[in-house]
TrEMBL record:
UniProt-listed CDD domains: STAS_SulP_like_sulfate_transporter (cd07042)
Organism: Rattus norvegicus
Pfam families: Sulfate_transp
GO biological process, one term: transmembrane transport
GO cellular component: membrane
Protein's name according to its UniProt entry: Solute carrier family 26 member 7
Annotated membrane topology: Multi-pass membrane protein
Classification via PANTHER family: SULFATE TRANSPORTER
């Protein structure tokens, strides 16, 4: 009997603990996605395309690493480290199969603000000129990378805190137009930062409000100092890059391996510069000395974290948003899912850990992701293979890059941003998709309600809406607060047309109509419903027809139950387009019968 009890207890003990072990296993797979896809990796089908993609990605990582390190106001070699360690960490913790983490233009620009503020160029002469024990670099260079590493460390910590707080669930607020606008704006700033290298102009560091315009103002003021050799080499490089990349795109189905024109151009330009001694003969700026190897880890200076808090928040949010957009795009294209919160963990660790290895802030970049798409990459193995070639550059090929002209490097960066710059064309797409919201129908005002309507905001909602209505119906001049209420988070009023030449003067002979788009009204209480009904009755007394579109069944039921609504004609419609169609047909009917309700 005792033995049977022991056996029964052991069975119960096993049942109690087996699910626990399974939970741990599932948690590990969820937090370490490499454990999920690596055992299922198909060597026969995926290794060759991943290898080809990895080699070409390494070229991108090296060129962008060098350039974005300079953009971040640190020594170019630190950009190579920033192209290596974050990519390895993301391959372990990240879920985007075509997301290549590394140096990123916008995070480099943000960290440069902290570097130039805390360790300005004027400090170069104040620090000791003797080389340090770290790769033979000066103390000035180490101070600068210390600031950039501190920005990376604190930015990563902020991302990890967001992971713990599960803020990845709030990413639905990051719409495609917002992300597109941000990345396109970043691309224009990066192109602007490369102008001095493209033209060969010596330019001081310019930042702050309107810094974008001050840079071009400085260029035009010093147009006579443009270096002709740098300008011609830049134009030649851009033409070659664009032509070859377009040919690769045109014939990518006929050729199995695309020509790595970036690599060919780097080798050719470096060799030509070395043979002709352009640095001394023409004064052409080159990349300069790239030390071999990787220094031992060193903690970023913790005493300056409070001084870089603003830049750290910028790196954390901008880097995550840009990277998440690429991960979601990859998941949508190749039919798999991405955990938005897990991406916070992946990018947080990709910033925190490399900050101890002399790395600048990291994020994913559209150019690298597009490159992985075009070369047929299958998994994160392509990124890991690229890391092998980046290591080869760091330990063997790096010193040969001394002669690479900066104008050629800038040309590669500018052409690589083509995909982001052409997003300006999306403006037309967004306009066409949302043209119903920009309807120029006569005497129709469309207003979107984008938040819950409850007792906390009902009063302000009513006041803001009435200001808009009074402005239109009374033909009054713009009120002082109208511009403010039109930017209110609750209301999104969109411009309407007019049957007269004065847009602010409504036609007295036509009835004014208001369409409330309730698609964003996800929650309401009694106060919210009563506010809507009272607004409807108030507008009706002012000869303003009110129609509600995209209402939930519960909202229709609540408003109907509240009472006092006009039951003679419908006021609820399935869409804004349907409401507008009914309004226009009613107007045409009233014109035919020469009848006016005013």
């Amino acid at each position: 009997m005792t033995g049977a009890k022991r056996k029964k207890r052991s069975v119960l003990w096993g049942k109690m603990h087996t699910p626990h072990r399974e939970d741990i296993k599932q948690w590990c797979k969820r937090r370490l996605p490499i454990l999920e896809w690596a055992p299922q990796y198909n060597l026969k089908e995926n290794l060759l395309p991943d290898t080809v993609s990895g080699v070409l990605l390494a070229v991108q990582q090296v060129t962008q690493g060098l350039s974005f390190a300079i953009l971040s106001s640190v020594h170019p070699v630190f950009g190579l480290y920033g192209s290596l360690f974050p990519a390895i960490i993301y391959a372990i913790f990240g879920m985007g199969r075509h997301v290549a983490t590394g140096t990123f233009a916008l995070t480099s620009l943000i960290s440069a603000n902290a570097v130039e503020r805390l360790v300005p160029q004027s400090n170069r002469n104040l620090t000791t000129q003797s080389n340090s024990s770290v790769l033979g670099l000066s103390e000035f260079e180490l101070q600068r990378i210390g600031v950039a590493a501190a920005v990376s460390f604190l930015g990563g910590v902020i991302q990890l805190v967001m992971f713990v707080l599960q803020l990845g669930n709030a990413t639905f607020l990051l719409t495609e137009p917002v992300i597109s606008a941000m990345t396109t704006g970043a691309a224009t700033h990066v192109v602007t930062s490369q102008v001095k290298y493209l033209l060969g102009i010596k330019m001081p560091y310019i930042s702050g409000p309107l810094g974008f315009f001050y840079i071009y103002a400085y260029v035009f003021e010093n147009i006579k100092s443009v270096q002709l050799e740098a300008l011609l080499l830049s134009l030649l490089s851009i033409v070659v890059l664009v032509l070859v990349k377009e040919l690769n795109e045109q014939f990518k189905r006929k050729i199995k391996v695309v020509l790595p024109v970036d690599l060919v151009l780097i080798i050719a330009a470096s060799f030509a510069c070395y043979c002709t001694n352009m640095e001394n003969t023409y004064g052409l700026e080159v990349v300069g000395r790239i030390p071999k190897g990787i220094p031992p880890p060193r903690a970023p200076p913790m005493n300056i974290l409070s001084a870089v808090l603003t830049e750290a928040f910028g790196v954390a949010l901008v880097g995550y948003v840009a990277s998440l957009a690429l991960a979601q795009g990859s998941a949508k294209k190749f039919k798999y899912s991405v955990d938005d919160n897990q991406e916070f963990l992946a990018h947080g660790l990709s910033n925190v850990i490399p900050s101890f290895l002399f790395c600048i802030p990291s994020a994913a970049a559209m150019g690298r992701t597009a490159g992985l798409y075009s070369t047929g990459a299958k998994t994160q193995v392509a990124c890991l293979i690229s890391c092998i070639f980046v290591l080869i550059v760091i330990y063997a090929i790096g010193p040969l890059l001394y002669w690479l002209p900066m104008c050629v490097l800038a040309s590669i960066i500018v052409v690589g941003l083509k995909g982001m710059l052409i997003q300006f064309r999306d403006l037309k797409k967004y306009w066409n998709v949302d043209k119903i919201d920009w309807e120029n129908s006569q005497q129709i005002k469309i207003i979107s309600i984008n938040n819950p309507l409850v007792f906390l905001n009902a009063k302000k909602f009513s006041a803001d809406l009435m200001k808009i209505i009074l402005k239109e119906t009374d033909g009054s001049q713009a009120l002082d607060d109208v511009s403010k209420c039109e930017q209110n988070t609750l209301l999104s009023p969109l411009p309407n047309g007019s049957c007269t030449e004065e847009a602010s003067q409504p036609c007295p002979s036509e009835k004014y109509s208001l369409v409330l788009n309730c698609s964003g009204l996800t929650f309401f209480d009694y106060t919210g419903v009563s506010t809507l009904v009272e607004l409807y009755l108030d507008c009706k007394s002012r000869s303003v027809d009110v129609f509600l579109a995209n209402c939930t069944a519960s909202l229709i039921k609540a408003m109907t139950y509240y009472g006092d609504l006009d039951t003679e004609k419908p006021i609820f419609f399935d869409s804004v387009a349907t409401a507008i169609s009914v309004i226009q047909s009613n107007k045409n009917l009233s014109k035919d019968t020469d009848h006016s309700e005013v």
